[in-house]
Structures are given as structure tokens and as C-alpha cells.
Amino acid sequence: MAKMVIMDHPLIQHKLTIIRDKNTNTKIFREVTNEIGMLMAYEITRDLPLEDVVIETPLVKCTQKRLSGKKLAIIPILRAGLGMVDGILDLVPAARVGHIGMYRDHDTLEPVEYFAKFPQDIKERRLFVVDPMLATGGSAICALDLLTQKYGVDPNNITFACLVAAPEGIKALQAAHPDVDIYAAALDERLNENGYILPGLGDAGDRIFGTK
Ligand code: PRP
Ligand code: URA
């Protein structure tokens, strides 16, 4: 089983409280979501491999470290995943960005895919699939099914990162994709009867884009 990490950094907890608050407006919600994305990027990139490189400082020749290994790609699940992308790109500006368009049917809660576009060399890259909410897990599972089954990506090269996870979603995602690392900024209590996370933050897409 791959890693399951709940981030309990004080800055992340503080910022999550801001976006959970129903009185937080769209502008602040969007800004803070990106800030959390950036803080999460610091942690989800912790295992990136390094190699030695010889450089000269103004004083002396020396051996230092630089990133090596696979190039990176961020894959937001639309729409809400877009809200984390700029924050992550602040830390890894050279990463490519692929998109998976998916919405959850309001009645069945089943994910419906409507768009997919990836960098050509997706199989060669280390992927960070991002979506603020992991509720039933249906959307994340469907996105990872697409990447691993249709595009042949090795699940060991994928990390899934979300802001708020429900226990139900984590369980389902781990069962479907046991080799994918999962990072969440918070593990909440449960889903309500409509498949919303409690206490949660409401509908992430609507709050990021101001559509409700
Ligand atoms: C939300 C969220 C996830 C999904 C999580 O998207 O951003 O993609 O629901 O729910 P699940 O784990 O039960 O699948 P939504 O369907 O509301 O689409 P949107 O991002 O376009 O608003
Ligand atoms: N999608 C959201 O945006 N919020 C939830 O609580 C569950 C699914």
C-alpha cells in the first residue's frame, strides 16, 4: 500500500479554516486555495530524486544537488482542481499541466468524464493529480483509471493531492489504486446523505469560480 499522508502543518490548518468558513468570498477562497496548493506542493515533492552536480561558487568549486529523474506534470480534475494549479506551479514552474474534465452527477454521484488532454510524454512524467475534494472517491478513481488504463501511466508515478478528504473516499481510492500516494490537507468526519463532506467546505468548484 502506498503512502497516505494527512498534512497537519499549522499554516495549512489555519488556511483551511478560512476557506471552510461560509462567509469567505470568492476572491479570498481562490487565493487561499492556491496558497494551500503551494504548501502542499512543498510536501508532495519531498521524495523527488536529486543528483550531484559540480558547480563553481564565486569562491570555490564544489559538488551540490539538483533535481533529477522524471519531469513533472500537474493534472487538475476540472473544475475545482484548477484552483490548486497556480499555487503548485509557484514551486515547480517548469511542470507541464494536463486536464481531466469530470463532474459528479447530482443524482447518482457517479463521475461523468467530458474532457482529457495531457502532455504527449505523460507516461514518462511524475504526475500530481489534484482536486480539492475527495468525497465518495468516484471522481479520483475515474481519473486514475483513465491515466493508468487508457494512457498506460505507472501508478507508482502518480500522487493524488486533495484539500479535504472523507474517510469513505480514502478507503475507496486506496482499494482501487493501492499504489498511488494520497496526500490530504484534512481528513473530515463523513459524507452527508447528498455525498457532501462534513464539515467540509461546500461545493469547491462553485466557491472557487463563484457560480452559486
Ligand atoms: C467535485 C470535486 C471532485 C468531486 C468529488 O467536483 O471537485 O471532483 O466533486 O466528489 P467524489 O469524490 O464523490 O467524486 P464536481 O463534480 O462538483 O465538479 P466541479 O469541480 O466542476 O464543480
Ligand atoms: N464535491 C464538493 O465540491 N464538495 C463536497 O463536499 C463533495 C464533493
> Shape from CA axes?
globular
Determine the structural class based on helices, strands and strand pairing: alpha/beta
**Mean pLDDT across all residues, rounded?**
97
- Strand proportion: 25-35%
Biggest sheet layout: 9 strands, mixed
Which ions, cofactors or small ligands are bound in this entry? 1-O-pyrophosphono-5-O-phosphono-alpha-D-ribofuranose, uracil
Question: With helices defined by DSSP (H or I, 4 residues minimum), what is the helix count?
Answer: 6
N-to-C CA distance: 39 Å
Helix content: 25-40%
Count of extended strands: 13
Order of helices and strands: EHHEEEHEEEEEHEHEEEH
Taking pLDDT < 50 over at least 5 consecutive residues as the criterion, the unreliable ranges are none
Task: Please summarize what this structure is.
The chain has about 210 residues and is of the alpha/beta class.
Notes on the structure:
It contains six helices and 13 strands. With 212 residues, it is α/β, with parallel strands linked by helices. The strands form three sheets. Strands 1, 4, 5, 6, 7, 8, 9, 10 and 11 form a nine-stranded mixed beta sheet that branches. A two-stranded antiparallel ribbon has the order 2-3. A two-stranded antiparallel sheet has the order 12-13. A hairpin with a 6-residue loop joins strand 6 and strand 7. The chain starts with a strand and ends with a helix. The structure holds 1-O-pyrophosphono-5-O-phosphono-alpha-D-ribofuranose and uracil. The site of 1-O-pyrophosphono-5-O-phosphono-alpha-D-ribofuranose (PRP) has 23 residues, from strand 4, strand 6, strand 9, helix 4 and helix 6. 1-O-pyrophosphono-5-O-phosphono-alpha-D-ribofuranose (PRP) binds next to strand 4, strand 6, strand 9, helix 4 and helix 6.
